[in-house]
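[09:14] KT: can someone run the structure on this one? pasting the chain below
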Amino acid sequence: MRYAISAWVAGGLFLAACSDAPDAPVAEAAPAATTGESQFPADGPVEARVEYYVTRLGPQLPMPINASVVMDRVSRNGLEIELHYTVHDSTITSQQVESFADQTAPGQTCNNAMTAGMVRDGAAFRYSYDGPGLQRPVSVVIDHC
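[09:31] RB: done, structure tokens below
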């Protein structure tokens, strides 16, 4: 099944709820260490870890996060990984998404050993949200833990 998350997704999806909207945006799926030739280069250069993360997560997309949000792409710009979400619920506002992302993105990045290590070594995670109901796109960058 295309939505199945394989063994490299650490802890599954980090699901959380925004207190103002029951189906608010949630965070990332993180590729985890595996065995074999596709093993996460945990001790390798941060560039290799960023590339591994993006290339392993990309084929899983689009990934429904909940009834309102879909993670639809992942990309990289140097050492910055952008996780892009589309919010399909027009009742969720930009302010709600911004508040949610400000409160949850740091923990979702820094409480995962793999992503925290990447940030510690110079990578950054950008959580970007847009959608037809949002007044403006929302973007939060985590560049330190």
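[09:33] KT: thanks! Residues 1-37 have pLDDT under 50 and may be disordered.
[09:34] RB: yep, looked fine to me
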